Predict the structure.
Amino acid sequence: MYESVLQNALQLPRQLKEELVAELRAAIFEEMAARPAEEPSRCPRCGHAHVVSKGHGRDGGRRWLCRGCGRTFSAGTAGVLALSRLGADAWSAYVEGMVEGLSLRKLAKRCGVCLKTSWYMRMRVCSVMESRLAPFRCDPGTSVQIDEKYPNESLSGNRDRARVKMPREPHANGHGVTKRGLSKLKACVLTGVNDLGDCFCRLVGRGRAGIEQVRAGIEGVPLAGAVVSTDELSSYVSPLSAAGALAHNRFNSKTAGEDELGMVNALHSRMESFLAPFNGVSTRRLPLYLSWFCWEEQARRSDATRLGMLAPQVANGTTDLRIRAMWDEPQPFFDEYWGGRVWADEIDLDDLYEPAFVSTVV
């Protein structure tokens, strides 16, 4: 039967073959989303842990009742497909194009959506990637290297919907920072990698990392019994000691060898190459792109193809991202630098000069 179906498909014109392939991929994607899931441990709406079985829905799938909010849900509730008006064909085409590295405009054209929808779909896929990241492994004696990366702060986005006004002149494509060194105009991303290939990347603040930023960056990372290597930044000493690191080796970042900080430096190089095509990622969206990068690092070590990993994850994945909430999301660490500054369009001349002088100027 398979051979006869294949022979009939090969006799079709090229356009019909492409349409057939697209429909088959959409059917496979939709079938993945319809697979029965294991009994959930929490409610996808409120997060309550007490859920009980509540029969079956019209489609035959199992349903559960949350004792916290009193609402029923199924395996598809809060799923990417369940919360989208687009069909499985559009999502399967988008996932395939995202794996191919297509731009937002090309993805929008392929899926028949507008540019804003294409961007929102990317954010939702990144959210699914974030939820599917494998935990950072750290057995006793594991070698871990931690260092900071300082991308330029980017305030890009729709300024008409932003909570705050633009406090400075716009920078072209994420560039334009004129201050030398590690100024407050740079975001701080704490990165770590172990000899097993696991990594983490977390946005922790702006400017040079302090003790609180390092503590926030390694929170939840099991470093007990690990041999940790960092640069000579003193902010690492106290947090790593509290985390139970077996040893803390400090090296000069300029003279450190390959076996000292080579793994984390290579991670930084791959991160730069990954972020470069986006021409300046907005700082408030940077955590999602860092999750995307960590997912790519995870997929790089897998024997499965990236499409073979991502398609079922998106089909069965859940996300809590909402477009309006993303519009209203504030800039991270904004008040630490911009909050106490007076902007040029808010200066009142009467507060700076005597009334007699102002009358002569105005």
User: Anything to note?
Assistant: The mean pLDDT is 81. The chain is about 40% helix and 10% strand. The radius of gyration is 25 Å.
